[in-house]
DNA sequence: CGGTCAATGTCACCTATTCTAACATCTATC
DNA sequence: GATAGATGTTAGAATAGGTGACATTGACCG
């Protein structure tokens, strides 16, 4: 009898389902993994399997990308490197740069004024 | 943006996942469907897809089978045919029969005293 | 005991889904 | 225009899943 309680963290969803739930393409999902942003499990046959938390992460990535962030930025935001020299300040600088650098967003459809959090 | 809220009813799990979560075999899962006890959706490519509610149903079936019920019994229990002549009484009689008929359970491992509900 | 039925196992054959790797495209930036 | 980041596309191979048929097991019953 398996433990059904931890469904948020259990990897039960194949990539086809993830495509449906996130509206991302397989290419995108695999690329974000290659960039070290999601880490699905693998079946014995090497097929990726995702959890609901992975879905949330992917939707978050999608949202950040739409806001003009880079995958490298998002990676930093998700895994802040405390204790490493200059890293905190570097991240803050990147965020400041992003907020100043509205060029990407100006061309985009929705011109928003903030990111919901301030460095 | 898909609606992620109704995950209990959304069919997102392939049969391989269902096998893991229920500890049933593919043969059993498909047979219960053939007996009209579960009704998964199908992908465009004809692959079965299950929801969390389907998982619950399958675990319930498994439990009832372990208690000595027949798939036909379980179907009646799940879809009681009200309004049909004698059907209610028939089901009650079946339940009484099951409770009296301990032969199957005696051979089984766990000799239980009740079913949690009484007709 | 031999037959029957419900439930499950197993196998063969076919289709769908996913995998990796490589190359192409598009866009913003320098 | 060259570059880099993000994504599209395609080919070829492997895994996962589908159906259908036949075999097996264990109760039950005359």
Note down, in words, how this protein is organized.
Two copies of one chain form a homodimer. Chain A is built from six helices and three strands. The first copy, chain A, is mainly α and 119 residues long. Chain A has a three-stranded antiparallel β-sheet. The interface between A and B is medium-sized, with 18 and 18 residues. The first copy, chain A, binds a DNA duplex (30 and 30 nucleotides) through residues 14-16, 25-28, 30-31, 43-48, 65, 70-72, 103-104, 107.
Specify the CATH class of chain A: Mainly Alpha
Corresponding CATH architecture of chain A = Orthogonal Bundle
Strand content of chain A: 5-15%
Measured by residues with Cβ under 8 Å of the partner chain's Cβ, the largest interface is: A-B, 18 and 18 residues
Gyration radius of chain A (Cα, Å) is 17 Å
User: In angstroms, what separates the terminal alpha carbons of chain A?
Assistant: 47 Å
Q: How would a crystallographer describe the biggest sheet of chain A?
A: 3 strands, antiparallel
Q: Which strands sit side by side, in order, in the main sheet of chain A? A: 1-3-2
The counted number of beta strands of chain A is 3
Show unreliable segments of chain A: 83-90, 99-119
User: What is the N-to-C order of secondary-structure elements of chain A (H for helix, E for strand)?
Assistant: EHHEEHHHH
Number of helices of chain A: 6
